[in-house]
Amino acid sequence: APVVNGCEFDPTLGIPSVHIDNAAAARTAMEHLYALGHERIAVVGGPPDNPLHRQRLEAATAAARAHGRVDVLAMVPGDFSVESGHAAATRFLAQAPAPTAAFCFSDQMALGVLAACRDLGIRVPEEFSVVGFDDLASSRYLSPPLTTISQPMREIGVRAARLLLAIIEGVEVPHQQTLDFRLMLRGSTAAPAAG
Q1: pTM: predicted TM-score of the whole model, two decimal places
Q2: CB of 20 closer than 8 Å to CB of 176
Q3: Mean pLDDT across the stretch 32-47?
Q4: Contact (CB, 8 A) for 33 and 44
Q5: Within 10 A of 65 (CB to CB), how many other CB atoms are there?
Q6: Closest CA to 45 of 74, 16, 18, 25
Q7: How far, in Å, CA of 91 to CA of 75, rounded?
Q8: What is the pLDDT of residues 150-173, one digit of tens each?
């Protein structure tokens, strides 16, 4: 039966897919934090065997290396859930010196990081910055609103359905379609506090 992958792109599978460039998106998120002046960044990743996690982590690590900061890049595993983001932040915020920012591989984990900051009395973005990934509808209504990578989710779904229909009907169309993403700048990121 014909199969089309929407969003979770894994080039090793050879399956028709509609997706964004996850590596470029992760680099964009990291470059935003470096441009603000952050040097110690925590990366809250997903399950190690997840292709999205691998693509985003490789790009985040490459960005850290390009800035000479790979030694202070803290990768903390998660599972894309709020709970894992909260647990990760509780762990890395107890380090000395603690990171000044986090790039989370999902908005759900970013929500957990924001909650951990609130629990610990750490002000966002004055004392800690957070970037998410996905741009869930609720992300703009958080306090503060979440800076995040926006995927065109509706367009991914529409294109995936059209691609599947084209394959069923024998119509020649590109089987790998990469859509644009955007960095949504909101209130959860700022320059690190002095000192």
Answers
A1: 0.93
A2: no
A3: 96
A4: no
A5: 12
A6: 74
A7: 11
A8: 999 999 999 999 999 999 999 988
